[in-house]
Each structure stands twice: as structure tokens, then as C-alpha cells.
Amino acid sequence: MCTVTFIPLANKVIITSSRDVQNARLPAGEPSVHRLKGGLVIFPRDSQAGGTWFAVHENGTAVILLNGGWKNHASNPPYRKSRGLILLDLIAEEHVVETFKVLDLENIEPFTLVIWEEEKLYECRWDGAEKYCQQKEAVPHIWSSVTLYDEDVMASRIQWFQDWLSKHPLPSQQQVLDFHRFAGDGDQQNELLMNRDGIVSTVSITSASISQQLAEVCYLDVNVGRSSLTEFVFFKAIAVIS
């Protein structure tokens, strides 16, 4: 997994993730609020490993997971802990990015995190040997998992995203969800709502519209065609980019 987009607007940011996994994997639960040691967090829970790929904290921090670091890798289980549980460990901390920098990731499979924390956007990667963390400019971005998509496909997806943004410079959350559902060139193997011979496919889309007071979390279960919308009110007003 996955495909992730980040879109900043005048008074909010919209972060959206398409989850691409093996169809044999158990269905995940819809986003719900859980109390972790650092406060309340909303996330969809993976039914197999118990972790998640997308979480928003009541302090306004959001963390989204993509499999793989910089390039595709050969998976070599067993690993010490799932990447989805690592995400929950991180978002439970007051300072996610700083915690990532010091967290022991030995024998953890490579991953990439997109982090929205204190009005700043970060990209943090673990390649199995070293960590990389960079603050990104808070402008529209799209990421695709290196375990599923090669550089040519990633470049095509960036172009689809740019073309779509030129037509939707101030998109609604629904329009972003539609981009994740319909963007592509007819190649079902690599478009955003992907399907590779019924073995690996996009099983859900999760989106958070994060404003000063709350996150509106929309979840679409692609396999059953069911959607939900949850308003997650923050414990205090947060600042967003203006």
C-alpha cells in the first residue's frame, strides 16, 4: 500500500490514502476513536496485525503509512513488529517526527510516513538500515508506494494529479475522493483504484479534512461499496496554514 495525496487549502488540509493490499487479507474496521497513552486517536484498524495505515490525533497531527522506503525490497519475515503498530506507537507521542528520529526500528520492514504536525508537512522514511526525514513545502503532493509502483508509473500519477489540480484548484473532500476513485489512463494495474488480477487491489480509501476545530474522516470500503463520515473534534483549536 498505498497512494497518498496532500492538499492544503485556505483553512484546512485534506489528506487522503488509497489502501492497496492483497485481497486475501482480512477486511479492516472502519475508522473509530481509540484512547492511546497520548490521547484520543481516530483510525481504521487492520484486522490482522492490529495496527493502522492512517491516523489522526486529537491534537491535529496526522500520520499516514506507505509500504517501502526508497525502492522495492524483498520482504524477509518474521519482523519484530508490524509497520501499522509502529505508526500507533508514534502518534501516541507528543512529538511524532522527533520520536521517529530516535525510535528503534531494527528488524522493522521498510516504510514511508507522511506526517502533518504543528502546521508542517514531513516525509520520513526507513529503508531497513537508515532513517531519512525531511520537511516538505506545504503544497499539493502525491506519493505512491515503491513496493507496487515503479518510477514510470509514479511519474504518470504525478502528471494525473497535476492535471486534475489544474481543473480543481480548490477541491472539496468529495472531489479528492473522486480523484482517488477515477484517476488513471485505463490501465487497471496502475490507476489509482487499481486491481491486479484480483490478487492485489485497492480495498479502501480514507480521507481526513483537517481544520482548526476538527477532522472530518471519510472512509470508503471499495469491496462492499459502503462509506462513512466521522467528525472528530479536537481537544483544543489548532492552527492551520493560512
**CATH hierarchy, class:** Alpha Beta
Second CATH tier, the architecture: 4-Layer Sandwich
Low-confidence stretches: 237-242
Order of helices and strands: EEEEEEHHEEEEHHEEEE
Radius of gyration: 17 Å
Structural class: alpha+beta
Beta-strand content bin: 35-45%
Distance between the termini: 31 Å
Shape, please? globular
CATH topology heading:
Penicillin V Acylase, Chain A
Q: Quick one: how many beta strands?
A: 14
Q: Can you summarize the main beta sheet? A: 7 strands, antiparallel
Helicity, as a percent range: 10-25%
Number of helices: 4
Return the domain count: 1
Q: Any key phrases for this structure?
A:
Penicillin V Acylase, Chain A; seven-stranded antiparallel sheet; 242 residues; 14 strands; 4 helices
Describe the structure.
With 242 residues, this protein is an alpha+beta fold. Helix content is 18%, strand content 37%. It has a single domain (3-233), classed as 4-Layer Sandwich (Penicillin V Acylase, Chain A), CATH 3.60.60.10. The strands form two sheets. Strands 1, 2, 10, 11, 12, 13 and 14 form a seven-stranded antiparallel sheet that branches. A seven-stranded antiparallel sheet has the order 3-4-5-6-7-8-9, with helices on one face. The radius of gyration is 17 Å and the shape is globular. Residues 237-242 have low confidence and may be disordered.
